[in-house]
Fold this protein.
Amino acid sequence: MTVRTKFLTACMSLFLTLMFVSSAYAGKKSLENSVGVTIGEQCVRPAEFMRRNHMEVLKTKRDETLRQGIRTDEFSLKGCIDCHVNVESKKPIPVNAEGQFCSGCHEYAAVSIDCFQCHATVPAKNSERLKKYFEKQATGAN
């Protein structure tokens, strides 16, 4: 192989690699678009705090509940599910379904979650927040 052929081969390889990488990123959703509108009105903490710290908050909550027997509503996974669920045709969509609240961010961050092997993915049928949401929808209030 001549020097010129080696140079052209290297340039072509670099070009193809850059094209492949850029096309992979071109279809990637932004974090803002990975999470749909949910039924909750305001989170327990600012969104930026929750994006950065929610896993630590959930682990601390888990440890307090399981190891110390302290059960409070603040930072409960049940509370998260009650707010961050989307509703379609008067049915809650599981938060871990493709494109929904939990899966949207976790897919974007390329991390897997195992919370829902045990925990519910939709609010309980008697959830007060879900009832209020349906009442607002029925009256047309925002």
Observations:
- Residues 35-139 form one domain.
